[in-house]
Input
Amino acid sequence: MKTICVTGAGAGIGRAIAMHFHGAGWRVIGLDKDAEALAELRGALPRDSALLLTCDVGKEGEVTRSFVRIEEWLDGGALDCLVNNAGIADPYCGPLEDLALDDWQSWIDASLTAAFLCSRAAAPLLKRAEDGASITNISSTRAVMSEPECFAYAAAKGGVDALTHAMAVSLGPKIRVNAVRPGWIETGPWQKGGERRDPSHRPKDLEQHPAGRIGRPQDIAGAVEYLHEAGFVTGQHLNVDGGMTVKMIYED
Output
């Protein structure tokens, strides 16, 4: 039985990835700093095939402690896939001149520093996989295209893209490393109970996607599965955005 570790597993895209792989027969390790969200996920996954740990993956000490526990749980076995999904979901930080350094650092740590820390900790476990292992970093289309006042988020995701190809070159051939760049993904139904909401989209929201709809977290889970199975794909950045980034948008 293969094992996947997903950061930011408590809600949204991370929760969908964890549920998708568990449904496919994998053992799942989930990390999230939201203990309430993890407790809800724990109720949906059998304890014998899931390890869910409260962890702020942007903090070195917490990552170190979590991976000590993960190694114990694996009991000499391998980690087959790491998904660095954690991050601050809201990209907007306000005017550049008002952006505090601490706030900037929060975005960087939540995505980029976390991906580094978890990849570093996971690498020895991933190298145990007999058939080769994979890391998928969840980046964003905002790594390559911007909206106003998203400086820190865009910089963090751009760093994740760069880290992806750097790790692919250095960790291959035992570990393949790729990134998924989600576009507009509706995560409302995948939040924890108190924050769950039904989607509501305008016709023009759908029309800006050549695929004709907003993305779903399951779309990203499927992309992660593809990249894990695609043995000749590494160092790549896969846009999963319904075609939004290739369509010209004209103002009315």
About this structure: The chain has seven helices and seven strands. The radius of gyration is 18 Å. The longest strand covers residues 175-182. The domain at 3-246 is CATH 3.40.50.720 (Rossmann fold).
